[in-house]
Amino acid sequence: MATPTSSPSRVPGSPTVSSPVPSASGPATAAAALRLDGVGRLTLGMSVAQAQRAGLLVDHPDFQCGTVMTATFERQYPGVYPDWGQRGPLRGILVKDVDRYRTDRGIGIGSTLEQVRAAYGAELSELPRTTTYFDDISNEAAGAWLGSKVRVITNGKRYLALLIPASGDGAGTVTGLWIGGINAKGQLVTVKGC
């Protein structure tokens, strides 16, 4: 298991996409594949205009973010919550509650911490929830839910965080996933909404 360093300029771990480890649910189809850069056709950096052309978003000035997901989006991506910010580009994705999305190694909602460790081994980092590694730790509810460590797979530019509660409902299993970028300070940029 990778051990965090004291330097915020480097996030430990580096994913390898070969040799998938099968899970009970198996690897995802292309439409439901979780990657470090997105899920299905949703890719970090995708513009609002690109999402609109794909029929996933429409302009809606009455909403805080100025856009709203379409029925097409909701059919194709149930349980996926994109973070477009005020007007894009796509800067983060939260996946919750749906056992449909899987990594190339079969990990997704409902996977146990033991399955995650078996699938990723030394590539899995268990990072303390501090500003050394995260750009924003102000959400105390999330902190209480996640505990003091967040399990992360990263390639140095992007990350996939496996949200595994330390106690309560879902303790010890993946209950959500964050996909996001890493800033110039080496911190994981948390999914915030707009």
Largest sheet: 6 strands, antiparallel
Query: What is the rounded Rg?
Result: 16 Å
**CATH structural fold name:** protein yfey like fold
Strand order of the largest sheet: 6-7-11-10-9-8
Class, according to the CATH hierarchy? Answer: Mainly Beta
Tell me the CATH architecture.
Sandwich
Q: What is the count of distinct domains?
A: 1
Helical amount: 10-25%
Give the helices and strands, then pairings.
Layout: E1 34-35, E2 38-39, E3 42-43, H1 48-53, E4 57-59, E5 67-69, H2 71-76, E6 80-83, E7 92-96, H3 113-120, E8 125-128, H4 140-146, E9 149-154, E10 158-163, E11 176-181
Antiparallel strand pairs: 1-2, 2-3, 4-5, 6-7, 7-11, 8-9, 9-10, 10-11
Description:
By secondary structure, this protein is of the alpha+beta class. The protein has one domain (30-181): protein yfey like fold. Helices cover 14% and strands 22% of the residues. The protein contains 4 helices and 11 strands, in the order βββαββαββαβαβββ. It has helices at residues 48-53, 71-76, 113-120, 140-146, and strands at 34-35, 38-39, 42-43, 57-59, 67-69, 80-83, 92-96, 125-128, 149-154, 158-163, 176-181. A 6-stranded antiparallel sheet has the order 6-7-11-10-9-8, with no helix packed on it. Strand 4 and strand 5 form a beta hairpin. It starts with 33 loop residues before the first strand and ends in a 13-residue tail after the last strand. Mean pLDDT is 76; it is low at 1-27.
